[in-house]
Structures are given as structure tokens and as C-alpha cells.
Amino acid sequence: MILAKENTPIHKKILSSITSYLNKKGYENIRVQGIETYDDPAQISRKDSDQSFTPDLTARKEGVKHYFEVVNYAKKDKNLVISKWMILSSLAKQLNGKLHLMVPHGQMSYTNRLIQANNIEAQVLSLNKI
């Protein structure tokens, strides 16, 4: 099963805004899922299941790999979301990188509850600051 995001114009606009923000902050080798002018990030698969997914964005800064996810899962299976975040967090930690959860207005407490309840190591950033 592949966990994918909806490819809506709003989601693309959010990804474009994040990409501009990352460029201004000095990130390099930016890969964005679903934006034509960028390569897609590498797909990640779980060894113990048929579950695979692609992060929304990946980038490097000062040699450190960063994974970025836009929190937009109100209609999705919460367990799949938690699983994805846990895997990305674990992968980032193994590679001395970081997971960033980009949170739209109204989903900050939801995101914080999920990461605290599941011990997910991630930086939570409001999309309002981008």
C-alpha cells in the first residue's frame, strides 16, 4: 500500500511556498513530490510490510538531510500517518538528519498530540511563519 497525498492545487501551492522558504534559508538539493520543476524525493519502503510512501519534500543543509511533511491528514487513516511519521523520524535520526512537520492553521494541537503520544522526534513549524 502506498500512502500518498492528494495532488490538489492548494497542496501544490503550499509545497511551492515551502520550497521558496527552503531556498531562502539556504537548503540545497531540494526534492518535491508532485511539483514538475523538481525531482521527486526517493520512495521509502518498510522492510516488514508492503507499505511505502514518499515524503513531501527532502533537502540538504550543511550536509544534513531534512525530511518535510505537510500535515493534512484529517481524512486519512491516523494509524498510517503515525506510521509514516515514525519511519521518517527514525530514518532522519539514523542519518543524523531531521524531520520537519509543516502545520497549517488549525492543526497544531492535533499534530503535537500525535507526536507526543507516539514519541515521534520532529520539529513542528507553523505554515503561517513561511
Task: Summarize the structure in short.
By secondary structure, the chain is α/β, with parallel strands linked by helices.
What topology does this entry show?
Blueprint: E1 2-3, H1 9-24, E2 28-32, E3 44-45, E4 52-53, E5 57-61, E6 64-70, H2 78-94, E7 98-103, H3 108-117, E8 123-126
Parallel strand pairs: 1-4, 6-7, 7-8
Antiparallel strand pairs: 2-5, 3-4, 5-6
Please, how many helices? Answer: 3
Tally of strands: 8
The secondary structure category is alpha/beta
Proportion of beta-strand residues? 25-35%
- The sequence of SSEs as H and E is EHEEEEEHEHE
Strand order of the largest sheet: 2-5-6-7-8
Shape descriptor: globular
- Note the gap between the termini: 32 Å
Give the mean pLDDT: 88
Low-confidence stretches: none
The rounded Rg comes to 14 Å
| Helical coverage, percent range | 25-40%
**Sheet with most strands:** 5 strands, mixed
Structural commentary:
With about 130 residues, the protein is an alpha/beta fold. Helices cover about 35% and strands about 25% of the residues. The chain contains 3 helices and 8 strands, in the order βαβββββαβαβ. It has helices at about 10-25, 80-95, 110-115, and strands at about 1-5, 30, 45, 50-55, 55-60, 65-70, 100-105, 125.
